[in-house]
Amino acid sequence: MSAVEAETAAAILTIDLPAIVANWRTLSARHPAGPVAGVVKADAYGLGATLVAPALHEAGCRHFFTAHLEEALAIRPLLPDAVLGVLNGLIAGTEAIHRVQSIIPVLGSLPEIALWRAEAARAGASLPAILHIDTGMSRLGLTEAEVAALAADPALLAGITLRYVMTHLVSAESADDPLNEHQRARFAALAARLPPAPRSIANSSGIFLGPRFASDLARPGAALYGINPVPDQPNPMRPVVRLTARVLSLRALEPGESVGYNATWRAARGSRIATIAVGYADGWPRRLSNRGAAIFDGRRLPLVGRVSMDLTTYDATDHPGLRPGDWLELIGPAQPLAAVAEAAETNEYEILTALGPRYHRVVVAA
Fold first, then answer.
1. Is 207 exposed, middle or buried (0-12, 13-18, 19+ CB in 10 A)?
2. Could you give the CA distance from residue 166 to residue 214 in angstroms, rounded to a whole number?
3. Catalytic status, residue 45
4. In terms of CB atoms within 10 Å, which of 32, 56, 157, 319 comes out highest?
């Protein structure tokens, strides 16, 4: 960050690419059965897929997944030799784009398979695909009846080369949940009815369920970005983001005076209120109103009043050394992402992916 940018930035989001790469290597070491993909959907969980994907590729990652075709198209020029799959399936009319750009659709229904089969016939070539079997998520994926139809009529897969058969775990972060073993067994049984193909089962948390959940390809997302894949244990992943905000002003309040919209907080004593230029337009959850915090010099400043669109206020009464221009930590070593999510009564995924474009972004590249 240049000196001018440092002087003018109201809030800084620091993204640590080496930490993301280190997390991928940690996950790869825990999954020796096969390669570990990089899930870079939702713009790499809000951190920038055009930054994250090349860093992972340079480290040796060769499989990537997005949610939408548009996301895959944005990074395809940066990853010309990578296997690039689209998790949300094949939308009619996009078949030729997938084929020409060598983007692999994840097919989750018989109609999607029919679209891809027809594209293969038009191209006069066999086309790669990943089949998604639903084993309990009940969102996307082939039903048991559709798997039975494919088993009964192999011609339904004519012209399609199965790169992988996959499923998605429902409760992998809860190691003792019987759903995990139920899904593993069901996936094994249903995949066995299809033509032989490599299999993919583990997401971030699934990698930590042990060798029974190992397969030919793991597909972590959240853990790459520092989110704990084993919530009941210390986080084995490195944090990858830090968010700080400059104090714009400090205001003295008399006892009984209020702060923010609808006067939801009133000073019980003479108070000093610090205001920062971060609000719900920046992805700072409104749910943090009167319950969140910031950190200064290792100590907590309670969030007081409502989080508004552009501004948030903190009680700095017990921080007499705080001055306008000082920086508050919103996410960082003293207040991890998990603590923010807990205070907002949501998960870390939502906090991370909501961080908006108005932050000045600093990328740590080495």
1. buried
2. 12
3. no
4. 56
Q: Is the sign of the CA dihedral 64, 68, 72, 75 positive or negative?
A: negative
CB 353 within 8 A of CB 41: no
Q: Give the pLDDT confidence score for residue 7 in this predicted structure.
A: 67
Specify whether 46 is located in the same domain as 105: yes
Q: List the catalytic residue out of 45, 225, 261, 280.
A: 261
DSSP H stretches of helix in 131-170 = 144-152
83 pairs with which residues across the strands?
63
What DSSP designation does 125 have? S
Q: Does 26 reside within a domain?
A: no
The catalytic position among 41, 45, 164, 359 is 41
The per-residue pLDDT for range 331-358, each reduced to its tens digit, is 999 999 999 999 999 999 999 999 999 9
pLDDT tens column, 16-31: 999 999 999 999 999 9
- Give the pLDDT confidence score for residue 366 in this predicted structure: 77
Tell me: do 270 and 144 sit in the same domain: no
pTM over 0.85: yes
Res 5: pLDDT = 54
Identify the domain containing residue 130 by its residue range. 31-225
Mean pLDDT of the chain: 97
Q: Are residues 166 and 261 in the same domain?
A: no
- Per-residue CA distances from 242 to 57, 191, 336 (Å): 23, 42, 9
359: annotated active-site residue: no
Residue 223 pLDDT > 70, yes or no?
yes
Q: Half-sphere exposure of 309 toward its Cβ, with a 13 Å CA cutoff?
A: 0
Domains of the chain: total: 2
Query: Hey, what amino acid is at 235?
Result: N
Does residue 53 lie in a domain region?
A: yes
- H or E stretch at 17: helix 17-29
Q: Is there a domain that residue 78 lies in? A: yes
CB contact at 8 A, 131 and 194: yes
Residues 53 and 104 in one domain: yes
